[in-house]
Amino acid sequence: xxxxxxxxxxxxxxxxxxxxxxxxxxxxxxxxxxxxxxxxxxxxxxxxxxxxxxxxxxxxxxxxxxxxxxxxxxxxxxxxxxxxxxxxxxxxxxxxxxxxxxxxxxxxxxxxxxxxxxxxxxxxxxxxxxxxxxxxxxxxxxxxxxxxxxxxxxxxxxxxxxxxxxxxxxxxxxxxxxxxxxxxxxxxxxxxxxxxxxxxxxxxxxxxxxxxxxxxxxxxxxxxxxxxxxxxxxxxxxxxxxxxxxxxxxxxxxxxxxxxxxxxxxxxxxxx
Length: 272
Known about the structure:
The structure is a single chain. By secondary structure, the protein is of the alpha/beta class. The chain contains eleven helices and eight strands. Strands 1, 2, 3, 4, 5, 6, 7 and 8 form an eight-stranded mixed sheet that branches. Helix 2 (27-39) runs antiparallel to helix 9 (195-207). The longest helix is centred in the N-terminal third of the chain and has 23 residues, at 43-65. The radius of gyration is 17 Å and the shape is globular. The model has no long low-confidence stretch (mean pLDDT 92).
């Protein structure tokens, strides 16, 4: 059965691909993304710094905490290096299960399955709003050992889960299924530095059919309740353990990297 890619409406994963300069996006995605850029020129900075954070936190969790398993939900269109490539560059035995609900991500999933021989990757087509389906997927238990620590990776996805879909309950359900020593790595867009602009960005996503809700620092902190936050705690993404080697990669045309252009709270918490 052919995939229904729904290319007639914008999708958050394809808009994100556009912000990163990717090619896997279509006219409705580009139109909506340009509307966002018009009201928030920093959106490309936000997208890039989100990926830099994902890279840093992945390397840190492998090298400093010995993590070897990831459940990455809201994966998005493959953009090299993907999470497993970053992790397996440090430790080839890392295993990663990717989860996304966009059929176009499934169409490109081959790029997510090029694991090292020592490790393993798998892909589940599912929505973060249905955690039971993710936890019941055979690909999960075939790839990860649920008795050993797992990193729950939720990068730039929960701002597409409004309160009526119970995002805090979703995160709690997923964490409850993971053993002690597991970790939550999370980034989340925030209106804290420019509320009026982010209200307009949310309106654009909603008008295109994508539910969206950005959250304040205290609201993002709630996702880490009961977890032990790693230093430096919840921080704007580019300030979370910055890597001097990333600085040259920030010299892109357009807005500078600062709290307002990044507008992402990011952090890591460990399950006791």
